[in-house]
Amino acid sequence: MARSEPARGMRDFLPEDVRRREYVIGVIARVYERYGFEPLETPAVENLDTLMGKYGDEGNQLIFKILKRGEHEASGQADLALRYDLTVPLARVMAHYQAKLPRLFKRYQIQPVWRADRPARGRFREFYQCDVDGVGSTSPVIEADLCAAVAEALTTLGFTDFVIRLNHRQLLTSLLAAAGVDTAKHGEALIALDKLDKIGPDGVAKELDARGIGGEASTALLEFFQPSVAESELDRLSGFVGDDAAGLAAVDNLRAIMALASATPAGGRIRIDPSLARGLSYYTGAIMEINVADLAGSLGGGGRYDNLVGMFLGQHIPACGFSLGLERILVVMGERGMFPPDLAVTPADVMVSVFDASDTVHAFRVATQLRDSGLRVLVYPDAEKMGKQIKYADARGIPFVAILGGDEIAAGTVTVKRLADQTQHTYDQSAAGAAILEALRQRG
Amino acid sequence: MARSEPARGMRDFLPEDVRRREYVIGVIARVYERYGFEPLETPAVENLDTLMGKYGDEGNQLIFKILKRGEHEASGQADLALRYDLTVPLARVMAHYQAKLPRLFKRYQIQPVWRADRPARGRFREFYQCDVDGVGSTSPVIEADLCAAVAEALTTLGFTDFVIRLNHRQLLTSLLAAAGVDTAKHGEALIALDKLDKIGPDGVAKELDARGIGGEASTALLEFFQPSVAESELDRLSGFVGDDAAGLAAVDNLRAIMALASATPAGGRIRIDPSLARGLSYYTGAIMEINVADLAGSLGGGGRYDNLVGMFLGQHIPACGFSLGLERILVVMGERGMFPPDLAVTPADVMVSVFDASDTVHAFRVATQLRDSGLRVLVYPDAEKMGKQIKYADARGIPFVAILGGDEIAAGTVTVKRLADQTQHTYDQSAAGAAILEALRQRG
User: Fold this and answer.
1) Across residues A385-391, what is the average pLDDT?
2) Fold assignment, A346-439
3) Most buried residue, A53, A240, B299, B405, by CB count within 10 Å?
4) Cβ separation of A378 and B3 shorter than 8 Å?
5) Are A106 and A36 a contacting pair, CB within 8 Å?
6) Would you call A41 and B259 a contact, using CB atoms and an 8 Å cutoff?
7) For residue A299, pLDDT beyond 80
8) What are the beta bridge partners of residue A41?
9) Pick the CATH number of B346-443 from 3.40.50.800, 1.10.10.60, 3.40.50.1980, 3.40.50.720
10) In terms of CATH, what superfamily is A15-44+83-336?
11) Between A and B, how many CB-CB pairs are < 8 A?
12) To 10 degrees, the CA torsion angle through A398, A400, A404, A409?
């Protein structure tokens, strides 16, 4: 007997799960459309060389690789891989269809990605990303637009307490240099500083020391990177940057993004956070991450990646994107009870029961009529005892059962039983649909 | 520079493609819901042993296999695989969640599957199936229900000329035995008979001979399997079956399915076709396939598979399913111009232009107001020449451009230009949304 579990880190979604997922995806897609983003889909399977080298060493390790087909299968070589994010496929698409796509392209994409991470609570090997990206402009309008769109999506879903943390790769570089950290040690310093939330300044100081960054550099870093919610955070940071032109340009860029976003649903949501680093290696400018208080990890994040399209095209095309994690959103919404109550729908509005197997064709005829009036209708498949059929409808939450006995068939009528109060009425078959619809409406 | 093509046999879907796909998926899902089917989703990646041995030898060859992770990667061993169809995962789910799922479960599932087929015109390595299945009953109500649901889905999409071919695995076996074909040769006989449409009776006779089925058996088979559209086809076939009980039961089953389906949107669409065999090895009873005149191959197919769930559960649970192929439907709808004209939507209803970079925040403020009134709004990212901005909107089919010069900003107004006739009006910023919505409505 074959085992019946899904593969490790993968999940099956039963009807209630699917309806919740579809609800959230629908809200997000409709908001993205209101910002002028257009839908794109790419295949789950990419050429292996499309993905390798785009996500840093750790990313390379987590890519699922697919065996070559046919005679090469025995060699154990892989030539294909599962999509790891939605950004690299977008960069490939921008390069491949450059002539067909507009020079400024705003796209959204809501599809699964796969990562061979160690599964853990809330961490899966297949999960959905809901991405928005703006390609073809270096303007801070793009960043502000993305922040506005994701903020409106979350607000529409009912989130009231999220914060968009904002930082800039060039500002990070500038601050690390100003603190006296060797360029070669920047990556290590960021890994340590990334833990400020979790292990506090003393913990980070120890970690910096262990990584060979100590003394004045460590002290300066901890001063620069201290958490702050001040309005004037950018002024404070630009003070540390000194006269480093790239660092000052980064501060100006962040200032522009915040000013534009203030006129959108992202207004009041954005907080400058110098310790935000974002793992992916392709970011070049502003970086963003969304958090809520009761979730370790983020609801989503993104940033500017001006060099990625060029890796496929050999021509510079700037781009910036933001990705919401569907699973994280679902977890928080589930814990907080944020789903609309009418999502827990029943499989049907009415079940047509079967009194006698030889009369089943009449059940089908009435079911067709009821569907034509707009109802969701299930025909019970077997002429079992009426009590058993009604029990099934009740257990499934189906509110009405249509009964067709010999009398009803002869008279062209149908008896409709309302399970909530066990009342029943007999209608002309052509009038039953309207009566049930009306009763459903009154019930709300 | 990395190559930018999608992997072989895989496709990217640009916005217009996605909108067409979403439209068809939406129609099919809504119809399936009206028949009481509930949504299910399963992971793209399954354990390799879940899939192996379920699809016959050819199927085994076409499964995409995924390399083991970590230290085992170098060994070239595969332990995971990409979903090959939606039926085997359903059987696995029925076994795994038996306690949570109802005893009668009607589910639909619309997801991609992957097959390492040689790519050809209209044949892809990633394609979507739109499946409906009824689990837990052997009643012909299930088969008739499936035929009704797919017929209504196709009718709602605008198809008027499809035919559902219907046959039964037991009837096939009975006819082959009655013709005197050795049980061991049944598979070979079906492969030959499957070509009746393409190579005619003489061709099939030659092919049967080459496979060691000649003489009286070949003559009888060609008589039994001659194409017929007669109402009395089942009577004709039951004549050949003789007193074989399984064959006669199959004829009765097909008769019951046709009678029930006659009271549904599948009425008049079903034709008994003794030459229909269906490749997959898991079918045990009725088998179905949908065809239209101008498409080689089918729009979809299915059948009863009463033993598959048991392979995962060790307990007999009957089931029957029907799968529509999304890609085939899209190809025919594209060739026949069956998509609603308003699917070719523009990326936005209105584009807010940017006159002066320092005024961009006003553009954002007006864009937020316009979105709040229900419009889809794009903000142009760069303060380029107005002519260039308007040209972009026009090229993208965006009907209105909002212009905010110094005068408008000072007065709290916005000038709205209609690109179709180059007329423009100036509105209070708070009134512009309603005016544009009204103009869009009048345009239809």
Assistant:
1) 96
2) Rossmann fold (3.40.50)
3) B299
4) no
5) yes
6) no
7) yes
8) B13
9) 3.40.50.800
10) Bira Bifunctional Protein; Domain 2 (3.30.930.10)
11) 303
12) -130
